[in-house]
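dumping this here so i dont lose it again. seq + smiles for zinc ion
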Amino acid sequence: MFYNRQRLHSALGYVSPAEYGRRDRAAGSVVQCPRNRGQAQCQQRTPCAKVPPGKGVQRMSNVSGSVRLRPTRIGLLVRPSQTNHQLIRQFLRLCACLWGGRYNPIIPVARTLPSEWARRLPRNTSGHDLADGYIDFFEPDVFVEAEPGLAQELGIVSERHLERRVVPLSEFILKRETRAPDFAFGLNIFDVYQHRYDHELQFVRRHSPTFAAFEKAHSNHAFFELVFGVLPTQKDIAYIGKGYIDAFQPKLLVPTPESAIEALRARHGTPLSVTHFAIDRESGSHSDVTIYFFDSSKTIDVIDFWNLGLWKMNLIPVEISWARTFAPFLLDVIKKNYRPIPGNAFGTMHTTHVEFGRSISNSAARAAASLLRGVPDGAVGYSLEYVQPFWAKHYSRMVTRPRPVRLTSAEEDFETTVDSDATFVTVPSLAPEFAQRFGAGENHARWSNVIRISSLTDVQERAPIYPTNVRNADYPRISFGSTGGIVTREGFVFPQQHMRLRNSLNLKRHQDAVIGWLKTRAIEAEVSSAGRNAEQVVRSQGGLGSNILAHEGTLQLLDRMAKTVHESKDGTAAQFPDRTARISDWKEVVGRRREELPRIALSDFTDRNIIRLGVAVSCPRCEQENWYDLNRVDYLLQCERCLGEYNFPQGDLRFGEQDWRFRVVGPFSLPNFAHGAYSTALTLRVLFSGTMTRATMTWSPGLNLKRGGVAREVDFVAWYCEDRLVSHEREPAVVFGETKSFGSDAFQAKDVARMRELGEWFPGSFLMLSTLKRQISPEEKNRLQRLARWARVPRKDGTPRAWVIVLTGNELFFTWSVGHTWKELGGKHAQVAEREGTHLGDLATLSDLTQQLYLDMPSLESDLGRRHRWRRSPARREG
Ligand SMILES: [Zn+2]
């Protein structure tokens, strides 16, 4: 198949990654300044302002990150009905035949939410909300459908190019002509058996069995499939069961409560535990021992217990109907576990938690709990109450939510260099060393590589993060050719088919990434002229984090130098060229800034082509003071006003600083604070580096949006993540910006309405409204308050409609960090900044605090906590 794939590529006109690399290198990396049209190499440290975005200048950039090897995560889509109990057991048996199979989630697709799952959820949660919650929580690489149509019902696109992401459960076993049957997804555990037999077990005395196997399943309880794994009995894959017996010579047990206890007590290896081979499991939640009573004859409990094991470790499973038989074993577990926590000075002890499945009635739970009497006080804690479902979202982003167990079989850091113009980044791939080199041809997802980018030097060019696309991986297409990569909170996931293929990661340009994504939301977008200016300003200032423009006096001076436009009553506009500024004016501004930024220099502005030095000469005829750029100064000069020619006054200069003057360049010459570009650049700077941790961001400058017949403008769009090295794995926040300069009535009704509309188009997004002013007028405040109140209304899942963030000059002109500036401002600002746990890198917090500071709103916590009513948690049913 490997060779077929290459043939296929050439047939489709694909160019191999290696070939692309060669082409890019052949294009060379000579830095040629487009302004000079190839006459000479540009000597400037940064490209001049006239460079069109992404073109003209080729640079090499460094990309570094990590690749992680883990098993393929296969999600089963199934209706959670009691009649599907057998079908789910069939899937569980297949999981025992797959590497990492214990970590394949079961996703219940219910039309209406079963009452057992409705508790502690917002009232109107639907069956599909539940399925969506599970998908967002587990983010499966591929799906198996218990019946046709379930994937489509959830909006999962099943076919990608030539590869399937969804396979019917009935077709999961692939029959092959020349070799033994294999699977549609995942790595056959037979490879592990073989490897362990070859490398470890054949040399070991195998008389005292440390492995066990249950040859048959229990007639009506799924307990053995869930806890130990039951060997397959289907004819096609019976060879796998035989392989287990040959490799491990297990003790063969019949499925009874007693044998279950024996296997748990002796910690026998089982078909399911062998699927963890060579996998390091890291739990996202605390790891105290939990005894879990459930009814494995009930579909709902089967699904719950199986999925519980995907995010919680150290579970002791107990079939409720066998509770009496299990009791002595459980008492031993509790007593053994009741020991001091190592290194804890207060003598705190480990305790055992006891939880009950959602199908267990209150009286049954109490009866089971009564069996555990006679242990020391405090050795065991019961959760009779229903806990909030693990997948449910919470309006406070600061609340720690469970996360799935992180599986790692191998991990490697990489560092690579790419041309800025190369279409993709080549990243090494990792494969399990025990895997057969080639799998079944149709199985393109035998294992997965998870790629994370930790640094990207051309961060201005290439977008490092994207919204997740687990349901439809068509956008963004992050992989090259037909291998279907997906974007998840874990990173970029590349399902793998063979060993020793490299991953080609297609990182789009910032704007293209955003515009393409908007297109998938039925919005046509193009960069606006304001957007182009803002982009040039960001580029010239030296990237998003540059502080060169973050100073009111500097912006005022730049604006005084800009062009002026006078509009007369009849609508005609007269434009006056930009003015010059004295060197002393600039020295004065830079001098003032030195108090805070000792290293700032006038050359920071000239090197970045913000201002340019020229010679000021008065025309002897009309006395107009002309300004000549150093390229244009000559012995014979032409006057700008009277157009007369005159000689350079070689003897009549003042021979001092007065002969020289600065002028603004490119976008900096535009009136009205570069048409709002300064405000946009400074707002993006707050996002990018306003907090102590540096954010990872994908951004687009101003866009004209068109949705249906409606046209709207936005000043920037960004996807934002707090520093990914530190923060939990989280979906990027979507941010829309409306940025204003110093205008007295800056936020007008139409601006606020437009932002609200964006909030309606993109529920859950962040609406950032900013101004260079320090004060917001009462009228503006009124309008913004209305917007903020609208945004705070909780949606169905309990999270707000949108998050309004208001920024003023206080934030936009920050020196070290927004928090630091707030502390210096004193008063209310200092109060919120000094509050414990205030972390402004979390945009929800920034939203909350800026609304309190500038709009006098109550805290989000008090407001939402009041508005948001959780479905009551009723006592367990009696029965
Ligand atoms: Zn003149």
